[in-house]
Each structure stands twice: as structure tokens, then as C-alpha cells.
Amino acid sequence: MKVFKRIKKVMVATLIAAMTLGAVTGCSSSGSSSSGDSKTLNFGCTNFSDSLDPSSIVNAAWCVSRYGIGECLYKFDQQMQPQPYLADSVESNDDNTEWTFHIKDGIKFSNGKDLTPTAVKKSIEYTFQQEKDGKGTAHPSQFLKYDSIEADDEKGNLTIKTSQPYADLSAVLANPLFVVVDVDADTDMEDQPIGTGPYAVVKKNEGTSIEMEANEHYWNGDVPYKKLNIIFIKDATSKYMALEKGDVDVIENISNSSDLKKVKDSDKYNVSEVVGGRTGFAYMNQKEGRALANDDLRKAVLMSVDDETLCNTTVGGMYEAGISVLPSSLDYGYDELKDATPYDVEKAKKILDDAGIVDSDGDGYREFDGDGKNIELSFLTYDSRCLKEFTEGTAANIEKIGIKVNVQETDGDTEWNKLTAGEYDLLSNNWLTVQVGDPNGYMENWYSKSEANYCGYKNDEYDKLYEQLLVETDKDKIKEIVKEMQQILIDDGAALIHGYYKGNICSSKSVEGANVYTADYYWISTAIKPAK
Fold first, then answer.
1. Phi-psi region of 360 (alpha: psi -120 to 50; beta: other; left: phi over 0)
2. Side-chain half-sphere CA neighbours of 111 within 13 A
3. Residue span of the signal peptide, if any (predicted)?
4. Cα-Cα-Cα-Cα dihedral sign, residues 444, 445, 448, 451
């Protein structure tokens, strides 16, 4: 009976997907902009989250921003500098612990309600309350620690008193975790959040698409399309094929190098590409009782992985190989870092042999101290930005030193939930490392006192430096601290680095203005419009 129910669910999901894609395909001769009709934009992308509640999970907050549903007080430019958006100014006290934002006049939510400082206050507090109640895993406290928020609707001011000094709180509030939504709206936040963006959700078709329409109350110029369809497409090649057939007008992140080359070589498409601040890496679960808590095993695993081949051949140059959790493109002393675990399979084997991690029964796999139980590492991944290919290639590398690896592909939400629950040994992910213009929140992943430390890593010197980083406002000193922190993580083998990602947005010639941003928070905007 259980098998029948599961098959039935798959059949239903397949039918829904077929109906959705069929509806979009049918539009390509009458409603899609790829046929010359400027009323509808079809956007193909990976489904990163089934929820649209910004508090529920990090991916959901990003989706609300990416799909043009909601906006933040500030917005990052291509140099990752925060620019005024829903707020038009900010002032701080001398010690950078009290920040007053002025909310722009005349902005409305897509349901017609005015955007007020009180509405912004409720939106921010909602996300924090969900985290406190255990209903949301977005963890806004990773980036903002505040004592109070006060709203003065008459003056249009929102004042935030923080628990620590911030170099620039406007950059923090440009993070999609702080996207502003109407928490008093009579819609389901998970399916239909109400924001101030150019498009509003009409209907969410679970796992297949989101039907949207122009926000008639939009504050920042004309909205180019009357309708917007967000079409979920599982893998990169399928995204390319959908673009080729005219089923979609714009797609995000073709991560198959041969498909991307076809698009670049064709005169039918526009390609926007940028080497931004993203790192592809695998968390290494070092919590007590997990295999990778063993320093020798972790070091040997890292030395067994051929990063250069994986980046240049396996994923066709879509990533640049590297040794640190922060990309080489960022100004945090990358060139001064030293690799503690360079690729060397024979040395990796010797480390294991010397540590007594050997194959005592001759089955090809090693055990701890010959206890007869094979070491088996669970390796989680999902199909996005070449993570699946990295995982499979990395697993094959690790197996060459006699460590069994069980690869499990799942979806983004499930993987995140397993990460936060600690139910993994290795887990591939791809992070924007400077989510608020600096790497502080990202580096908290390895701070032992943080709830965001999902891998159980602990180093007293790292913790001390991280705490200095939180209160330092001098940019040169910040760079030196971050450089030292990176080297500690490298020396301790804290994470398995895949490489540094090159993002892209591809579109048909019927569309203009579809560009990829360094921040990777912004996909759909009024800049995307029918080509002239």
C-alpha cells in the first residue's frame, strides 16, 4: 500500500508538471514574449524552496527577492555596496549601535496597503519571532543582533538599536532575510506573501510553477509584463532545452558547460555572466560520534580530492579551483594563504595507515582501529550549480583511499533540514559568501558558539578572532582578521572546497535587461523587458 501511494504521488506530480509545461508551451505561439507577445514573461529556474515564507528557510527568503515579490530597505549594486531602496536614508550614532532609517513615501504593498515604518518593524520582528519559536530556520540572528526596533510613522522613521556595533547596518538589511512583507495580510505567507516588488503571486502550483501578475501599485516605474510565470525545471540541460524550444524566455544558471557553450555560440541568445562571491563547498560534520570528527580521516579525505580536475574537467570550467572558504576574487588575503592539504593520494593513504585506519578484512574499505566496521560517509547533495557532479566526482576520489561514500541526492529544502539537524557526514552547498557585503555571517558557520555552526567545528583561536571581527569597524583590520580565520580553517580541514562559481543568466533575443548580479539576490526586476 505504501508503494502504491508513493507511485500515485509521483504520477500526480508528473501530470501537474506536464500540464504546467504544456500551458507554457502553448503560450509560445500566443502569450510568451519569445513569440513577440510582450504580455507574458516565462522564467525557468531550479526550485530552491516549496515555501515562500521568508522566515521559513533561507532559500524561501531568497526566492521572494529573486522572483520580484518583495524588496529590502537597501539593495546591493554590482560592487556589493548597499544603495537606498525602500529606505532613502540612514543615520547612526557615534558607536554604530543606533540606526535610523527613513522609509520612502508613497510605497505600497501589492495589496494596496501603505508601506509604513510600523509595517517594516512587524516584518522584521515576524522573522525573528518565527526563529525564536522554532517555526523558521532562516536564522536572521546570524546577521542582525538587536535590542529594540521603534517605528515612528508620522516622521517615517524606523530606529534599530543593536546589541553590537555594525560597520554598516544598511548592508545587513539588504539581505533577503529582511525582505519586507505585509505580515497582517489575509493570505497564506507560505504560498502568497505580499511584498512591494513589481510582481505579485496569483497562484503557487506546488513544485512546478508560480503564476504571477504585475503589481498595479508598484512604486518604482512601469512593470513591463502583465504576467510572469516562474517555471521550475530540475536540471541544467532541461533549462537549456526549454530556452531552445521557446518554452521559457529567460533561465538562470546553465551549469552544464557544453550547453552554456551552445548558448554563447548562438546569435539567438543573450548571456550575462559574472564571477561573484560564491563558493561551492561541502560541510564536514565534525560533531561527536561522526566519522569526520577524526582529524586524520578528515585530512586524508581532503588530500584525496583532485580539485583542479573536478573544476576544469568534471564541471567544464564552471568553477575556479581554490583552497579557502572565501573566493579568491574577494579582497581578504587569498594569495597569502597556504594549502595544508594539497592533492596527494599516496600521502592520504599513509596518513590513514599511520593512524590505524586500515582495511583489516580485505574488502577494500577501511575501519577505525580494525574494529571490523567499514567507515561509511553519507554525502548529501542536490542538483544545482554543478553540486551533483562535484559530489559524485568527490565521492569517487575519496573511495580511492578506501573510504566508502554513500551519495544521496535530494532537494534544496530537505538538504537544508538535514544540515540543520546534523544528519550527514558531507553535504554539498553553494553559498554567497558576502551576503551583507562582508563575510561575517558566512564565517559564523564555523563559530563554535553559534546555532549556525551546523558542522560542530571548534577552534578557540578562531572563536576569539570571530568575536573581534564582530566589533571591529576598521576595514584594514577586518581584512587581516578574516585572512587569519581562513588559514585556521584550512589548517584544521574544516571544510571541503569545491571551488568558486561563475553565475549566469541566459535569455532569448526577445528580452533585454536579463542580467546576473554579484549578489545573486535579484533575478526578476523591471529591468527585464521586451526587446526594442
1. alpha
2. 14
3. 1-23
4. positive
Residue 384: per-residue pLDDT: 84
C-alpha to C-alpha distance for 194 and 184, rounded to whole angstroms: 9
**Distance from chain centroid for Cα 422:** 19
Order of strands across the sheet that contains 157-162: 87-92, 98-103, 157-162, 146-152
Confidence of residue 318 (pLDDT cuts 50, 70, 90): confident
Contact present, 172 and 90 (Cβ < 8 Å): no
The strand pairing partners of 74, in sequence order, are: 84
**Alpha-carbon distance 194 to 181, whole Å?**
5
Count of H helices and E strands in the chain? 14, 21
Q: How confident is the model at residue 79 (pLDDT cuts 50, 70, 90)?
A: confident
Which residue type occupies 65?
S
The 8-class DSSP code of residue 203 comes to: E
| Cβ pair 42, 171 in contact under 8 A | no
510, three cell numbers: 526577445
- Give the pLDDT mean for 108-129: 98
For residue 273, pLDDT over 50 is answered with yes
What phi and psi, each to the nearest 5 degrees, are found at residue 261? Answer: -65, -40
Note the pLDDT tens digit of each residue in 446-504: 999 999 999 999 999 999 999 999 888 888 999 999 999 999 999 999 999 999 988 89
For the chain, the straight-line distance linking the first and the last C-alpha, in angstroms and rounded, comes to 57
Q: Which of 404, 435, 430 has the alpha carbon at shortest distance from 415?
A: 430
Spell out the residues 6+ positions from residue 416 whose beta carbon is closer than 8 angstroms to its own: 57, 58, 59, 137
The CA distance from 324 to 45, in Å, is: 28
Q: What is the pLDDT of residues 458-470, one digit of tens each?
A: 999 999 999 999 8
- The grid cell for 288 is 561527536
In 10 A of CB 509, how many CB atoms? 13
CA dihedral of 127, 452, 404, 498, whole degrees rounded to 10: 90
Q: How far apart are CA 432 and CA 27, in angstroms?
A: 35
Lookup: cell for 202: 496569483
Find the mean pLDDT for residues 87-108: 97
pLDDT band at 437 (very low <50, low <70, confident <90, very high): confident
Closest CA to 62 of 204, 176, 222: 176
Q: Which of 34, 32, 69, 29 is nearest to 49 (CA)?
A: 69
Task: Indicate the burial class of 221 (C-beta count within 10 angstroms; 0-12, 13-18, 19 or more).
Answer: exposed
Contact 377, 404 (CB under 8 A): yes
- Grid coordinates given for 443: 564565517
Q: If we measure between CA atoms, which residue out of 201, 220, 194, 203 comes closest to residue 123?
A: 194
Q: CA–CA separation, 178 vs 198, rounded Å? A: 17
Which triple of cell numbers denotes residue 449?
558558539
Query: Of the given ranges (10-24, 150-164, 175-189), which has the lowest mean pLDDT?
Result: 10-24
Distance CA 466, CA 485 (A): 8
**Cell 573510504 -> residue:** 403
Q: How far apart are CA 317 and CA 273, in angstroms?
A: 13
